[in-house]
Each structure stands twice: as structure tokens, then as C-alpha cells.
TrEMBL record:
Keywords: DNA-binding, Transcription, Transcription regulation. It holds the Pfam family HTH_1. One of its GO terms (cellular component) is cytosol. The lineage of its organism: Bacteria, Pseudomonadati, Bacteroidota, Sphingobacteriia, Sphingobacteriales. This is LysR family transcriptional regulator. It comes from Solitalea agri. InterPro entries: HTH-type_LysR_regulators (IPR050950), LysR_HTH_N (IPR000847), LysR_subst-bd (IPR005119), WH-like_DNA-bd_sf (IPR036388), WH_DNA-bd_sf (IPR036390). GO terms for molecular function: DNA binding; DNA-binding transcription factor activity. It comes from the Bacteria. PANTHER family: HTH-TYPE TRANSCRIPTIONAL REGULATOR YBHD, NITROGEN ASSIMILATION TRANSCRIPTIONAL ACTIVATOR-RELATED. PROSITE patterns: HTH_LYSR.
Length: 300
């Protein structure tokens, strides 16, 4: 039997007459009769009893009608899911960043997107932090947010936003009156960083390493609030993105923000995606959503 036979049987039963089934299936009476005879011939049994121009299901027909409902409903559901996937309504996006500070704004952006696309699952892959580009190449991620792009023909970059890194010090620190600090100023300082490896720390990567300068002491401390408390107590200095530092400066007048370098230390963030994949429409909408929401809501 074919799908058309199942649809035929279902329509005859549910429409209650051959005439109505003809209209629903857009068949002529002779075509409908031919398909019904064909179905009964293939099964070797009668599907309908015919009496006074009325069709009623035989016992075998009842079983076939039950099966037809199951198959056609499952087929309709599958077609709906496939169509949704093709047009970007159902799927998942795996995302990570190279910097833990991004997790301050990322979850709220993802939540807003989920309201628009409730059937798109957004997964933050924390274990890919610090090495998102490699994870992107390994197909562990769909989206990597980075500020240090590498040249690779398999990766496509889309500019997301630009921010500025600042040093945070206590009002009692000898830097507090400086307009900016240079690499050599770090040699006698206790630098508090979020986490290792040091190569992923922006101020080390773009300021200290090129000048071959090592701070007197380096302490990894993954809790921003704890790091801020140490800085307030004049027990060290730390770097933060300007946009993420603003709330702390507002609530702690004894903290000071100092530029890094005469022209400031600015960095661009990029969305990195695979250059070799064809993405569904919802994925492209997600990229556009990231660009718009981050710049509007966070003003960065």
C-alpha cells in the first residue's frame, strides 16, 4: 500500500461519504473507486462493506484505519519538524568565548533571543573558554566570541563590538593620579588576573609580553567581586573592560580607573563561525541579534 491509499481510507471514514472524500482529495469518482479497489486488491481483503450506497469499515478496515492515522500523523509531524529545521525554527547553537568577562552579558542576550526563538536551544560551552577557535574547528562550537582572531581559511569573522581595557586601582595606590600606565609600571606591581593561562590575559598579551615585562606577582582569582575587594584594599591591581567596570566604579568611589598606554588599550571582539558550513536562517538571525542587542543594551 502507498500513502495515497491511507489518505483515501482516512478521508472516506472521516468525511462520511465518497462525495465529500472526492472533494477533499480532489479526485474524480472513478479515480477514487480505482484507488480503493487497488488498495483492497493489494491487501487481499475488503476494507469497506458496501450497503445502500454507504461504506462502513470491516474489521480489517478498522485496523487499517487505525494504522493509517498513526502513520499519517507521524508523517505530518516529521514533515513539520523537517520544514522547521530548514527554515530555522528548530535547532541548537553552541557558543563560547575566550574571556570569562563575556559571561556577564552573554546569558541575558541569549535569554532575549530565546524569547523570539523558543525552539532554538542555546548552549554555553564553558569548557571551551580560552580555546574557542580550536573548539570551533573541532566542531564542538557553532559560535566563538574572540578578540584575538587567527588567520584560518576555515574560520569566518564578523565584527561584534570594540571595548577598552582599563586598570583598576585603589584611590590610595600610587597610580591613582596617573593619566595612563605603561608596561614598565607593572614591574613592581601585584597583578590580579581572572585565570590562567597568562597568554589569554589581554594586558599581558598586548602590553607586557611585547615589552618583556613581568609583574612582581601574579594571582589568578576567578571571582570578580573578590578581586575588586583586594584592589579596594590596595593589595593589587587588575584590568577590566570599561563596560564591565562601570557598575563597580559607580558603587565604589574609592576605586580609580587608569588608561593603559597613552592611546588606551582597545580591543575588537568578533563572532567566529565556520567558513565551510551552510547555516539555517535562525543562525543568521542570531548573529544579527547579537550585534544589535550588545551595542544597544550595553552601549559598548
Amino acid at each position: 500500500m502507498e500513502i495515497r491509499h491511507l489518505r483515501l481510507i482516512k478521508s472516506i471514514v472521516e468525511e462520511g461519504s465518497i462525495t465529500k472524500a472526492i472533494d477533499k482529495l480532489h479526485l474524480t469518482q472513478s479515480a477514487l473507486s480505482h484507488q480503493l479497489k487497488e488498495a483492497e486488491y493489494q491487501l487481499g481483503i475488503k476494507i469497506f462493506n458496501r450497503a445502500n450506497k454507504k461504506l462502513t469499515l470491516t474489521k480489517a478496515g478498522e485496523k487499517i484505519y487505525e494504522t493509517a492515522n498513526e502513520i499519517l500523523n507521524k508523517l505530518a509531524e516529521t514533515q513539520k519538524e523537517i520544514k522547521a529545521m530548514v527554515y530555522g525554527e528548530i535547532g541548537e547553537i553552541r557558543i563560547s568565548t575566550e574571556c570569562y568577562s563575556s559571561y556577564h552579558w552573554l546569558p541575558s542576550v541569549l535569554k532575549q533571543f530565546h524569547l523570539l526563538y523558543p525552539n532554538v536551544e542555546l548552549k554555553i560551552v564553558m569548557e571551551a573558554t580560552h580555546y574557542p577557535l580550536q573548539k570551533l574547528l573541532d566542531d564542538v562550537l557553532d559560535v566563538a566570541i574572540v578578540s584575538d582572531p587567527i588567520k584560518n581559511e576555515n574560520i569566518r569573522y564578523i565584527e561584534l563590538f570594540q571595548d577598552e581595557m582599563l586598570m583598576v586601582v585603589s584611590e590610595n595606590h600610587h597610580w591613582s593620579t596617573k593619566k595612563y600606565v605603561l608596561a614598565e609600571d607593572f614591574a613592581s606591581e601585584h597583578l590580579i588576573i581572572h585565570s590562567l593561562p597568562l597568554e589569554t590575559v589581554t594586558v599581558h598579551q598586548f602590553v607586557l609580553a611585547p615589552a618583556n615585562v613581568k609583574p612582581k606577582k601574579i594571582t589568578p582569582l576567578p571571582l570578580t567581586e573578590a578581586s575588586i575587594e583586594m584592589v579596594k584594599a590596595d593589595m593589587g591591581v587588575m584590568s577590566m573592560a570599561k563596560w564591565s567596570l562601570q557598575p563597580y566604579l559607580k558603587n565604589n568611589p574609592n576605586l580609580k580607573a587608569i588608561k593603559i598606554g597613552k592611546n588606551g588599550l582597545k580591543r575588537k571582539h568578533y563572532i567566529a563561525v565556520s567558513a565551510n558550513k551552510t547555516y539555517p536562517e535562525y543562525f543568521n538571525h542570531f548573529i544579527e541579534f547579537l550585534q544589535t542587542e550588545i551595542n544597544l543594551q550595553w552601549n559598548i
